[in-house]
Amino acid sequence: MLAICFFALFSFPVDAERFVDDSLKVDGVWRKFTMLLPDGLEADSPLVFILHGHGGGIWKENPMAGTARKHGFALCIPLGLKDSKNKNSWNVGYPFQVGWNVNDVKTLCRMAQYVQKRYKLSRVNTFLTGMSNGGEMCYLMAYSKQKIFRAVAPIAGLTMEWMYRTLEAETPIPLMEVHGTEDRTSEWTGDMEGKGGWGAYMPVPLAVGYWVAKNRCTHEVIECVESIRGKNGNLVIKHFFTGSPYGCDVWLYEVIGGGHTWQTEDIDTGEEVWKFFSKYVK
Q1: Distances (CA, A) of 113 to 59, 106, 108, 133
Q2: Which residues does 157 contact at the CB level (< 8 Å), separation at least 6?
Q3: Phi, psi (degrees; rounded to nearest 5) at 153
Q4: What's the Cα-to-Cα distance from 245 to each of 44, 192, 215, 249, rounded to whole Å?
Q5: Where is 239: in which H helix or E strand?
Q6: Which of 36, 38, 156, 209 shows the smallest number of beta carbons within 10 Å?
Q7: What domains can be seen in the chain, in order of their start residue?
Q8: Span 219-265, pLDDT tens digits
Q9: pTM for this one?
């Protein structure tokens, strides 16, 4: 009787919001992640992964958290392993990651399958977003031969030259990029000489253009939107590339004057990303 009372005191309703710390062993290494399971989350709900930038960590109240609560999807927040600079990182082939034997494409795909099963989430409606190094990981995932993530949304992400030169995407995939034109870490105009220390990478419009061509989009609609801060904010130019026979749109949000951020001062980035992902929910 006492045991039953104790359980009742410290248990929680099935539908109560909670963060759950979890881990999965991949290639002999325990990979940590945290799940946000919003209040009232239903079985077979969509699943979104959000990846931190270089040196980041598990950020629970991230720009997608409120959106997950509002729209009723689960959020997985993984932690990258430490690289040669002792920073939590995703292996996207930076110069200082050469020789680092970590396959994060495999890890995230395995993690998604584990999470789908363990938390009774959709095996079809699983999506990937992330900023900076996490954004680069989104591009790498898009280029990779995987069938786990239905769409990707890199934020301040880059296509490394090596990806563009050596990889060819197997299938079209919906892609959304949000990027500031004054980003001094991940330059809008690219860094083909690798002066910033990240290695050579493509100009953002050219990198996104690969997916416009891959998805065979035929139309571009441009929408200029004032910042949520009004005249004190940055103009956001939304490029919507449509007409894909595969149903795979490409969206590019060009934040004029925006820096190396999630751009949440000028747009509700979480809502905009989910607006894109929700187009592909089956």
Answers
A1: 22, 11, 9, 22
A2: 130, 131, 132, 134, 135, 136, 138, 139, 177, 179, 186
A3: -140, 85
A4: 28, 32, 8, 10
A5: strand 236-242
A6: 209
A7: 15-278 (3.40.50.1820)
A8: 999 999 999 999 999 999 999 999 999 999 999 999 999 999 999 99
A9: 0.94
